[in-house]
Amino acid sequence: MTKAAPFRIADLVLPVFVPSLLFATGEGAFIPIIPALASQLGASIPTAGLLAGLFMLGTLLADLPAAQLVFRLGERKSMIATAIAASAAISLAYFVNSLFALGAATLIAGACASVFGLARHGYMAHNVPISHRARSLSTLGGMFRGGGFLGPALASVVIWTFNLRSVLVVAVIFCLLSAVVLIVMRGAGFEDDKPAPSVGVWGVAKAERHKLLTLGSASAILAAVRTVRSIGLPLWALSIHLHPGTTTLFIAIAGGLDFALFYTSGQVMDRFGRRAAAVPTLIASGLVNLLVFTAHDATGFLLICLGLALANGIGSGVIMVIGADLAPVHARNEFLASYRMVIDAAQAGAGPVLSLLTVVVGLAGAMSGFGLLAFFGGWLMYRYIPRFERQ
Q: Would residue 24 count as lying in a domain?
C-alpha cells in the first residue's frame, strides 16, 4: 500500500488477517485439548492446568527476544518462521506420547505465538492511521476469535470422527497454511517495518513505566481473566465429566458468538473511546466467573461458555488498541515488547495461580477469585484510559 493512497482496512486482508486467522485456528484447535491430552497421559486436574499454562509461559519467555527477532528479520519473515516452528512443536506432541513432550510442545508453541503476535501488532501500529486503528485491530482480534471458533469446531468433529490426538494434525496443518499464505502473497502490499534501534526494551520500559503500571496492569488483568477462561473452561468440563467432544463443541459455539462481536467492538472504540469497551468487558467477565459454580451439567456449561464469550467479545482488540495508542513512535516495537511482556506475564501466571487456587479452594472458588480481580481491572480502565485518550 502506498502512503498517497487512502487507507482501506481491506488492504490488510492478505498480509495480516488471513494468516492470523489460520494461525489462530491452529492454536484454537490445540489449546482446548491440552488438559484432556494431559489427563489421558495420567495428569491430575491441577497438573493438567499447569501444562496448559505452559503455552502462556512460552509467550512470556519469548517476549524480549521477540523484539530483536522481529527487528532483524522484519515482520513477514518472523511470522513465517514462527508459524513453521509452531507446527513442528505440535508435531512433537503427536509423535511422542508423553507428558514431557506435550509440555515441551506447548511451551514452544507459546513462544512462537509471542513472536507472531508482536510482528503483526507492530505492523498494524505503524501502518494503520489512528482514525481506523480500533476497527482494524478489533478485526485482527476478530481473527483470533474466528480461530477460537473454527479451531474447537474442527477439533470437535475430529474427536468424534477419529480420536483426541488427531486434533494435533489439524493444528499442524493450519499453522503451516498460515506460513504458506505469507510466502505466496509476497506482492500483496505487505512491507516489513524495521524502525531504527532505540535504547532497548528495558530502557523504553523504564521511560514509559507509568503507562505500563496503570493501563499496562489493567490490560494484564484482562489478559489473565481471558486466560483463565481458555484454561478454566476445559478444566471445569473435566470436573463435571463432560465428553471432550462435547466440550470442544460448546467452546466452538461460544467462539462463534465471540467472533460475531469483533467489528462492533472496534466501532464502539473508534466512536466512543477505549473505555466504552474495556470497562464493560471486564465487569461482565467478572460476573460470569463468579457464576461458574452453578454449571453442573452440559446445559449449564454451555451457558457459562456463552456468557464469557459475550463478555469477551465486547472488548475485542482492546488490549492491542491500548498498546498501539500508548506506543511512542521512536520506539514502537521496544515499547510493544515490554507491554506484551506485562500482558504475557499475567497470562503465564494465570495458569499456575489457577492451579494453586484450585488445590486450596476448588476450581469454582479459583475462577471466582479471578472474577473479583476483573472488577479491579475494570476500575483501572475507568480511572486511567481517559488521560491517555486525550493525549
A: yes
d(CA 249, CA 152): 6
195 found inside a domain: no
Here the CATH number for the domain that contains residue 27 is 1.20.1250.20
Distances (CA, A) of 354 to 46, 228, 291: 8, 7, 16
Each residue of 28-39: pLDDT tens digit? 899 888 988 998
Angle at 107 between CA 104 and CA 111, to 5 degrees: 135
pTM of the predicted structure, to 2 decimals = 0.74
CA distance 124 to 132: 10
Structural domain including 83 reads 12-186+201-389
pLDDT digits (tens, 9 = 90+) for 120-175: 877 777 777 777 778 888 888 778 778 877 888 899 899 989 999 999 999 999 99
- For cell 488498541, the residue is 321
C-alpha cell at 135: 476497527
Is there a domain that residue 41 lies in? yes
Total of domains in the chain: 1
- Residue 138, H or E segment: helix 130-161
Residue 193: strand, helix, or coil? coil
**Rounded to an integer, what distance in angstroms lies between the CA atom of residue 236 and that of residue 296?**
9
Q: What is the Cα–Cα distance from 386 to 84, expressed in whole angstroms?
A: 41
Identify whether 27 is part of a domain: yes
- Residue 192's pLDDT band (cuts 50, 70, 90): low
pLDDT number for residue 142 = 79
